[in-house]
Design brief:
By secondary structure, this protein is an alpha+beta fold. It folds into 2 domains: 3-87; 93-217, Immunoglobulin-like (Sandwich). It is 32% helix and 36% strand. It has 3 helices and 12 strands; from the N terminus they run αααββββββββββββ. A hairpin with a 2-residue loop joins strand 9 (180-194) and strand 10. The N and C termini lie far apart (78 Å).
C-alpha cells in the first residue's frame, strides 16, 4: 500500500472516531487501525502525535463498549428482579395511582394529601360523567386517607356495581388548595408483561405499573 493509501486509512480512522453519530464498532476500528500500521513506511512512520490520539480514541471506544455491555446486563438483572417482585404480589391488596373506585356493594376511596387539610371533598362520577355522590370530610392528616362509599347516590338510591371515577379536593384552614392524589384500591389478581415491563392486574381488569403502587398490605381485599 502506498503513502496516499496510508493517509486515506488514517483519515478514515480519525474522522470516524471523532464523529459521535458514526456507528463504527470496536472491531471495525481495530481492523482499520492495524491495516494502517501494516501499511506505513518504516522509513517514514506515522506521526507520533496522531498515533497517540488514535490509541486514545480506541481506548475510549473500548471503555464505552464495556460500559454499554455492563448497562445491558444491569438492565436485564433489574428486569428479572422486577418480574420476581411482581409475581410475588399476586393476592396482595394494593393502593396505586388512579382515579377509579370499584363498587361492590360498597366502595373504598383512597387518596393521599400533601399536607394536613381542614376540609376534604370526594366526588364520585359514573361512566357518563354524571355526579353520583359528593362526600364531605372534616380535617384530615397528611398522607394516605380512606373513605368508604356506601354505594348510594345523593338521593339515597343504590347504584349498580362497577367502576366509577373519583375526584378529591382539599383545602387548608385558610381555604388554600392542598395537593390531593387519588389512589385506586384493589387486589392483585395477575401479572402481565409488555415491552419488557411488568404490569400488575388489579381486580382482573386494571393494569398498573409497579412504580404506581403506593401501598401494599398482606391480604386480599
Amino acid at each position: 500500500m502506498d503513502v496516499s493509501a496510508v493517509d486515506y486509512v488514517s483519515q478514515q480512522l480519525t474522522s470516524a472516531a471523532k464523529k459521535k453519530e458514526d456507528a463504527m464498532g470496536r472491531d471495525e476500528f481495530l481492523k482499520l487501525f492495524t491495516t494502517q500500521l501494516r501499511a506505513q513506511n518504516p522509513l517514514n512512520p506515522m506521526n507520533s502525535t496522531e498515533f497517540t490520539a488514535q490509541l486514545a480514541q480506541f481506548s475510549s471506544l473500548e471503555q464505552l463498549t464495556n460500559i454499554n455491555e455492563g448497562l445491558k446486563k444491569l438492565t436485564l438483572y433489574q428486569g428479572s428482579l422486577q418480574n420476581t417482585l411482581a409475581t410475588g404480589m399476586i393476592g396482595k391488596c394494593v393502593k396505586a395511582l388512579g382515579d377509579e373506585v370499584s363498587l361492590k356493594g360498597t366502595g373504598e376511596v383512597s387518596y393521599s394529601l400533601g399536607q394536613d387539610a381542614a376540609a376534604v371533598t370526594v366526588s364520585i362520577y359514573d361512566s357518563s360523567g354524571r355526579l353520583v355522590r359528593k362526600i364531605g370530610n372534616a380535617a384530615q392528616k397528611a398522607g394516605t386517607n380512606t373513605v368508604t362509599w356506601d354505594g348510594r347516590d345523593t338521593a339515597g338510591v343504590t347504584q349498580p356495581d362497577g367502576k366509577y371515577k373519583v375526584k378529591v379536593e382539599a383545602a387548608d384552614g385558610s381555604g388554600t388548595a392542598v395537593q390531593a392524589t387519588t389512589l385506586r384500591t384493589g387486589t392483585v389478581t395477575g401479572v402481565t408483561f409488555s415491552d419488557n415491563t411488568a404490569y400488575l392486574v388489579i381486580d382482573g381488569t386494571t393494569r398498573v405499573q409497579l412504580g404506581e403502587v403506593r401501598e401494599i398490605t398482606g391480604g386480599g381485599a
